[in-house]
Amino acid sequence: MAVMTSSARPHLNRRLAEFGTTVFAEMSALAAATGAINLGQGFPDTDGPEEVREAAVRALRDGRGNQYPPGPGIPELRAAISEHQQRFYGLSFDPDTEVLVTAGATEAIAATMLALLEPGDEVIAFEPFYDSYAACIAMAGAKRVPLTLRAPSFRPDLDELRAKITPRTRLLLLNTPHNPTGMVLTAEEQSAIAALAVEHGLLVVTDEVYEHLAFDDAAHIPIATFPGMRERTVSISSAGKTFSFTGWKVGWATADGPLIAAVRTAKQYLTYVNAGPFQYAIAEALRLPDAYFDDFRADLQRKRDLLSDGLRAAGLEVYQPQGTYFITTDITPFGEKDAYAFCRALPERCGVVAIPNSVFYDDPDAGRSQVRFTFCKKDDVLHEATARLQRLAP
Known about the structure:
alpha/beta; Aspartate Aminotransferase, domain 1; Aspartate Aminotransferase, domain 2; 2 domains; seven-stranded mixed sheet; four-stranded antiparallel sheet; about 15% strand
């Protein structure tokens, strides 16, 4: 006789039912299976500074970080993060009470959403979203409310933002420089957003992992620098993008003491601690001279231009990014409109992998024909990839 048990219910929590394998895993698996050039997932194909890698080796050999580091992060790294915020932005944070080290920015975002949100809260976020945002908001039982960024400029409509604020709005989740569009918020836009946050008593969470990759005349200005914002903002960043060690997963959050205490409470039940020896290395990395950060930005801007030129030559419409690792394109000139189908077929058609922006939207028609390529690769890889794409040119 069959016995009914709870196993009749789907195994996956209903809050996560809409989420499956990430598009990055899917497309990277396609790249591996076909031998295609992977311009989809945003990881460099060269390591970062040798002195930073050697600092990690030195920490391993000296026995620093091989056992559990302190839960908030090692003091040396927390001090270096505090110094970085002061050095680049004039923001002062107490390394003991206002800085938290995390397992990359992704954990920082997850811990922040779990700490600050309750079921029924609303979170306004730029759409297209980086995919973990939607999942983290869902895990907290909150509701995401998209503010759609539209081609070609992908600038936020601030009147639309105001209209989306309701009594249930708990926080604004900002990402600048913005992945995947490459938009960088201006000082005027941030000032207006800050004024709305203060007016409505909203918390603000900012993902600033591409903070050192704003190009041309764009400049990254943390919203925490604006009046009334330091005490209501959680600023999140990481070492992976700035120093090209994405596998080390060293991120951080800075905020007013009570906010960091809340985020730390959630974080301690996620990874607890992580990346012990690498924390010592990133403490040294954050203290590299200005020339490192300037040269890093200039090199990535040059790669952006190289790939942009190649994509245009291939016949794609290119939306020139102001920052990040990524270029958004439109495949309509190819006579195609379904970016997901296009990206699934692309490895077999020409040996290149890209990411469909449509997966980052709630609206299935928004971004339907947009495809994202990354340029954080060696020059010869970018040249070869665009040569292959040019064989598809209409």
